[in-house]
Structure formats: structure tokens, C-alpha cells
Amino acid sequence: MTAKKETATQQCKETIFLQYNGKEVCIDQVREAIKDNYDAVKKGSDPAEEIKIYLKPEDTKAYYVVNEDFAGEVDLSFE
């Protein structure tokens, strides 16, 4: 019975939203925006191995650090 529970959990699709001040943004969209931003700046010269994301809704920004040596930011597109 445990194996069935683990399999069902592994197949579960999760969507995380940040809600702030009556608006929300999907975290998956933020993650993709960060990856696109990083790729546009680095143009594939330094592949991302680790990304740390810091959400700061009061600034409507998501700040990020890639590979402990590159920092950037993207706007949170609240809808």
C-alpha cells in the first residue's frame, strides 16, 4: 500500500501561487521568467546549476542568484 501512495504523490501536479495585496502570480511563471532572463544575459556561457529565488512582493520583484556568482531580478507580473 505504501508504494501506491508514493507513486500517486510523485504523479501529483503542483501549482504554487504567491498572493499579495489582492493579486497573484504563479511561481512557475516566475521561475521561467528568471531562467529566460538569465539565459538572455549569459547567452549560454555559464549554465545554471543552482538558482536561488527571493520573492519580494512589496517591490513587485523576484531576485535571484545563479551558481552563487550571478545576481539578477525580474518583475513579478501580478494579475
Key descriptive features of the protein:
79 residues; two-stranded antiparallel ribbon; alpha+beta; three-stranded antiparallel beta sheet
Look at the structure and give the mean pLDDT. 89
Beta-strand content = 25-35%
Instruction: Write down the overall geometry.
Output: flat
Structural class: alpha+beta
Q: In sequence order, what are the helices and strands, one letter per element?
A: HEEHEEE
Largest sheet: 3 strands, antiparallel
Number of domains: 1
Number of strands: 5
Task: Report how far the terminal alpha carbons are from each other.
Answer: 42 Å
Low-confidence runs (pLDDT<50, min 5 residues)? Answer: none
Fraction of residues in H or I helices: 25-40%
- Order of the strands making up the biggest sheet: 3-4-5
Count of helices?
Answer: 2
The radius of gyration is: 16 Å
Description:
- The protein has 79 residues and is an alpha+beta fold.
- The protein has one domain (15-75).
- The protein has two helices and five strands; from the N terminus they run αββαβββ.
- It has helices at 2-10, 27-42; strands at residues 17-20, 23-26, 51-56, 61-66, 70-75.
- A three-stranded antiparallel sheet has the order 3-4-5, covered by helices on one side.
- The protein is flat, with a radius of gyration of 16 Å.
- It starts with a helix and ends with a strand.
Task: Kindly summarize this structure in a few lines.
The chain is an alpha+beta fold. It has helices spanning 2-10, 27-42, and strands at residues 17-20, 23-26, 51-56, 61-66, 70-75. The protein is built from two helices and five strands.
